[in-house]
Amino acid sequence: MGSKVVTLMATAIEHLVTGETMQMTTSADRRCRMEYHMQKTYYKTASLIANSCKAISLLADQTAEAANFAHDYGSNLGLAFQLIDDVLDFTGTSASLGKDSLSDIHHGIVTAPSLFAMEEYPELPPVVDCGFEDPKNVDLALQYLWKSHGIQRVKELAKEHADRAAASIDLLVEQWQSRERIAACPHRSDTHRHYRNQVI
């Protein structure tokens, strides 16, 4: 059991490195693809949560099926979290975020709202390709973003993942009930409710 947990944690660390490498070395074409962004998001954020949840499940002597439910919960929670973080970078304030707003775009990082905006406005990818060192490019990219449905589409996608996370918790509860361990089962936490509320 201990070796499985070590393997899970090693995988999470490997994924963190992979995700950072993807962000730092990706080609302009790849970084404009939503599929690539979601894969990177899984590696950078969701994998750590998913593999930690699965490790905890194994350490709690749960079934392999329950451990997989725990992994699914963590994976979807992590994706929902990062998608909402992508939105808040555009809509939040420096005070609420604890960092400068628009931090990602000023650092040349293309996130989900911009990727969805690109699907609506083919004029946007060339702006992104030019980079954001020039403030004029940042302003132009933001103009396209605010005209698009990018923010709303990301919220909807985040809600899908939050709902999947909640469904995995329900399946876990059923597992615990079937093993007569409901007394030891923590009630559905407020964590996934928080992210579900953020995207409604």
UniProtKB/TrEMBL annotation:
For the keyword Ubl conjugation, the answer is no
Signal sequence annotation: none
One GO molecular function term of this record is: prenyltransferase activity
Single Gene Ontology BP annotation: ubiquinone biosynthetic process
Which SUPFAM superfamilies does the record match to this protein? Terpenoid synthases
The cofactors named for this UniProt entry are: Mg(2+)
Domain of life of the organism encoding this protein: Eukaryota
Q: Show the GO cellular component annotation of the record.
A: transferase complex
Keyword DNA-binding in the entry? The reply is: no
> What keywords are annotated for this sequence in UniProt?
Isoprene biosynthesis, Magnesium, Metal-binding, Transferase
**Which family does the entry's similarity section mention?**
Belongs to the FPP/GGPP synthase family.
- State the name under which the record lists this protein: Solanesyl-diphosphate synthase 1, mitochondrial-like isoform X1
- Name of the gene encoding the protein in the UniProt record: LOC116208264
